[in-house]
Design a protein that fits this description.
The chain is of the alpha+beta class. It has two helices and six strands. The model has no long low-confidence stretch (mean pLDDT 85).
C-alpha cells in the first residue's frame, strides 16, 4: 500500500483546500523552469497538478502529485517543486489513459513515493 502523503500538499507549500486557482502559474523545478500549471486539484489525499511542459518535453503534459510541491509564490505566479527536470522528464508517461486512471496514478505514486526513482525525503 502506497502512502497518501505524496498525494497531499505539504502544509508549508501554501496550498490548501481554500486555495485560489493556480492555472497558468509557471512551474519551477530545482534546476529550472518546466512549464505552466494546466490544472490543479485539491482533494484530500489525492491532489495533483498537471504541468504543460510546452517545448521542453515536446508539448507533453505531466502529472505531479501534490507532495512534490515545495511552495507557491503568488506574487510571481510560480509553483516550485522539489524535483529536478530529469526526475520529472523520466516519470511514467500518461499514454492513452487519463490523469484519474487508478493504474496510472499508482505508477506515478510509486515513482515519486518512498523507494521510487523520483523520491526525495523531506
Amino acid at each position: 500500500m502506497q502512502s497518501t502523503d505524496i498525494w497531499s500538499y505539504r502544509a508549508e507549500s501554501g496550498f490548501g483546500t481554500e486555495t485560489s486557482d493556480v492555472a497558468g502559474y509557471k512551474v519551477e523545478a530545482t534546476d529550472g523552469s518546466i512549464g505552466k500549471v494546466d490544472e490543479a486539484t485539491y482533494e484530500t489525499g489525492s491532489s495533483y497538478i498537471v504541468v504543460d511542459t510546452g517545448p521542453w518535453i515536446f508539448g507533453k503534459k505531466v502529472l505531479l502529485p501534490a507532495g512534490v510541491v515545495d511552495r507557491i509564490d503568488r506574487d510571481d505566479e510560480k509553483v516550485y517543486v522539489n524535483r529536478t527536470k530529469d526526475q520529472i522528464k523520466d516519470a511514467p508517461e500518461l499514454g492513452g489513459t487519463s490523469y484519474t486512471d487508478e493504474e496510472y496514478r499508482t505508477r506515478i505514486g510509486s515513482y515519486y513515493g518512498p523507494g521510487g526513482p523520483g523520491y526525495i525525503a523531506w
